[in-house]
Write the structure tokens for this entry.
Amino acid sequence: MAKDIRDISREDVKSNLDELYSNVENFRDSVSFQQMLDFVSSFKKLSPYNAFLLYQQRPGARYVLNASQWLKKYKRKIKPNARPLIILVPFGPVDYVYDISDTYLVDDKSNLSLFTETDEEIIASIIEPFKTDGYEPKVEMGNLEESMKYHGIIVDANFRAGNNYSGKIEVLGDYHPKITIQYKRRDIHITANYLLSIRDNAKCGEAFATAVHELGHLFCHHLNAVPWKAWEIRHLDYVSREFEAESVSYIVCTRLGIKTTSVDYLKGYCRNNKTIPQISVENIFTACNLILNMIEGISLKQGILYKYDDNFKRIIDNL
């Protein structure tokens, strides 16, 4: 007997995701991969994982909410026999959402409205428009830089380089600059583990995109972990590393309405190559989630230092 869709647990969904990730050949075709990236980037209110999960269930979905959200926010009910879509939720198993095409507009008495708006009109009114190309993500960049401290990353925004070189991230060796972190109204001085350098004449949007790209390298585990137990380095060729980092930058920046060169890089690669390099979709989405959370602002205890540096954790816990 088939399992009812509403009996599916979070573990079931995770198992299905693992199977999808392991079968990455589904996305080796360049056109299919680009379509998947565009879909995931368009659902700005969902995590990349959930957007990817929706893509597997209904590639044509445009905007999803659960039944109570549709009714409360937009006076729309679910059509009979509409099939729910599954997404993961924090601290719970799963939630069931419905695409806008599975809803209809009702009046204040929950009767079918005589003045039904089209789906396009609803989507135009409820989806936040993209910011313009000239948008300067100053707040987002500030949050990102503050969050980076908790991962042991120091930023050098005065990196002298040509216009064709935007920046880099590296593990620090003999050079040990200090980072100051404020916690419980105290200044804590720690040694940085990573240096993220950004070209000195980069505009705000360019600097932000560069930071996201370089963090993509870090969180896709292209660099050694400091502390060492945080992850194992993934030894990929140059093309694969750049493709993963550009994919991370593409998703994150597109969700914020920031146009970057990642668009041209990925579309150009996919146009000139039938298949994509050997990459990990799961690592790309994990990196996107981490960076998006950093942009919103994370706590000290969510950082690499507190999670994996026993000495740092002991200092913080004793405060």
Notes: The chain is about 45% helix and 15% strand.
